[in-house]
Amino acid sequence: MSLFRHIRSLNALQILRPGRRHLSTASLQYDQDPQPLFTDAETQSLLQSMTQLQLDKVFRKRTVPDNSTEMKFMTPDQLEKEFVQAIEKARHLLQMPPIVKVKVDTERLISKDAALKDFASTKYVFTDITYGLPQSERKVVVRESDGTLAYANLETVKRMNQLYFPLEGRKSYIPRMFTDEELLKSALDTHKYEFILDRATVQYEPYEPEFHNILSRVFEHLNESKQFDLLRSTRHFGPMAFFYAWHRCIDDLLYDMIRRDYLHNAAELIALSYKIHKIPLDYRSTLEQISALRSTPAEKALEDLRNSIQAPEERQRVGGIEQEIHLAIGKTENDFASDEICLKFIEQYIASEHALKKVQLELAIQTLKEVNLEKLQLFKGLKKAHGVNVN
Amino acid sequence: MSLTPASGIGRFYKQSAKIIRFVRQGCTNRPFYHIVVMERRKNQHQPVIEQVGSYDPLPNDFNERLVALNTERIRFWLGKGAHLSVPAAELLGIAGLLPIHPRTYMTAWRNRRKAADEAQAEATSS
């Protein structure tokens, strides 16, 4: 009980101490409105493809009250339907929080009445609680004690909305994690990026400067610690890639993607940076070629789900030896073909003046090429040994 | 005191006089008001027709008094010819929904006069 009291007193102090309420600002901020580029359909599909869809990561066990699982007997048709629903749910869970520009607070006066001066010792805040209004349209007005009536500032509006229509997970005080520099730093140093980002997404509206600041802080720290895989297949990977592409620091992420053999993602990241900075290089034809050869993350996840329940004998009966070889190598002919195209595109990028860490990237590409060549030889050898046609 | 839904459970006659008024909730030394629509002749703690807002007269940590108003329903009931109690009319005037109530001007003027008197008394005594 005393612990609760202690925490409450800490939070109460924070309201009264306005000087300590802000974190130090990050060095990288969006200088223009990023929203039109971010919500663009092409950008979204690129970001979704980069995020990938690893079902065991999306549906991993979380620290929630109920982690129970349910066992059922199903017919193949019901199972198929369940798979499609699971993919749909995963896509929903991976929806990216929007990146919009910071909203500037404007003072909007309604009336000023000098005869009302000193009518009360404090100001009054009026909130319209009409049913069925969206939060953005809810009017909040303030009557100051000197008689001026004006629309409330954004901070007050948010506080009143949270008071009368609470959002689940959002606190009415700012969590100390976001006000105390040391706490945020310790969370960053222990690589709890997803936790910080999730909490910031719930606590702040996307147009608030604090939201942008915390996102920048996390992404900058991530760029130094290079633990990009922690965010892969979460809803924050897209905004992260967009952030790096916008601020011209994609090289570390690119290196990580090449090292993990996600060449199509690397090509998409480069294409995204070309698109954002309007670099006159044709990336669309390359992307089209890649997308023709590869399935989307959702399709791939569905395919994996279907394969995962097949018994080995049945798999051989359905897909034949060819599929068996694909599973053993981890790649198909189409994958090898798309890798070829991606490699050409990435090498073109590394040779251009836009790449900053050329030596590192070249080495990674070289290593990958050797590994890929070995795999291709093994692939062809296996196919030949089993008497399957090799193109 | 049991809680009732904001839509209210009070029975009322079609032609009876309705009033928008405060109902004192809260407890000893801690007032808190519901703004409700009810039959004029009824006691404040009898069932109401509808709750249309709330008013917390004690300033919070940010030194502001909080008022919530369901403006859509208030305008509906005013259009139906509901009466207004003086404190409720004052509050709606301050909110900018109605013209400012004369009593608010009186309070403001008296407060200013009192402050001026005190300032003058301090000036003469020192």
TrEMBL record, chain A:
This is 28S ribosomal protein S22, mitochondrial. One of its GO terms (cellular component) is mitochondrial small ribosomal subunit. The gene is Dwil\GK11773. PANTHER family: MITOCHONDRIAL 28S RIBOSOMAL PROTEIN S22 (PTHR13071), SMALL RIBOSOMAL SUBUNIT PROTEIN MS22 (PTHR13071:SF4). Coiled coil: none annotated. The lineage of its organism: Eukaryota, Metazoa, Ecdysozoa, Arthropoda, Hexapoda. Signal peptide: none annotated. It comes from the Eukaryota. It holds the Pfam family MRP-S22. GO terms for molecular function: structural constituent of ribosome. InterPro entries: Ribosomal_mS22. It comes from Drosophila willistoni (Fruit fly).
Automatic annotation (TrEMBL), chain B:
It is found in: Mitochondrion. The lineage of its organism: Eukaryota, Metazoa, Ecdysozoa, Arthropoda, Hexapoda. SUPFAM superfamilies: Ribosomal protein S16. GO terms for cellular component: mitochondrial inner membrane; mitochondrial small ribosomal subunit. Its main location: mitochondrion. GO terms for biological process: mitochondrial translation. Belongs to the bacterial ribosomal protein bS16 family. Keywords: Mitochondrion, Ribonucleoprotein, Ribosomal protein. One of its GO terms (molecular function) is structural constituent of ribosome. This is Small ribosomal subunit protein bS16m. HAMAP family: Ribosomal_bS16. It comes from the Eukaryota. Transmembrane segments: none annotated. It comes from Drosophila willistoni (Fruit fly).
